[in-house]
Amino acid sequence: MTRYPIAVGRVVRSKAGRDMGKLFLVVGVFDEEHFMLADGDLRKLEKPKKKKLRHLTATASECECPAIDRLRNSDVRKLLQNATDKEG
To answer: How far apart are CA 80 and CA 77, in angstroms?
Structure first.
């Protein structure tokens, strides 16, 4: 099994919490143990979710956008939908 680094632009899956199993896009780094996540639906880019590294699993998908800060919530939703289609 290939391990992917968790960094800004990577699609990750939540391993714990009420959002367990849900896909998110990493939109920022809070510190070395916490990342800022958005899904474009409940967790918008304007108010991302802070989640611990140990509660995340990286997927093979990542955003090929040159600038994460220019993304819109609709772009994030499309990216996560495409990632779901690739996995399933």
So the answer is: 5
Predicted TM-score (pTM) of the model is: 0.90
Domains of the chain: 10-87 (2.30.30.30)
Q: How many angstroms separate the CA atoms of 10 and 14, rounded?
A: 13
Q: Is 80 exceeded by the pLDDT of residue 86?
A: no
* CA 10 centroid distance within chain: 6
- Residue 2 confidence (pLDDT): 67
Amino acid at 36: M
| pLDDT value of residue 1 | 52
Q: How far apart are the C-alpha atoms of 59 and 64, rounded to whole Å?
A: 14
Handedness of CA 34, 36, 37, 42 (dihedral sign): positive
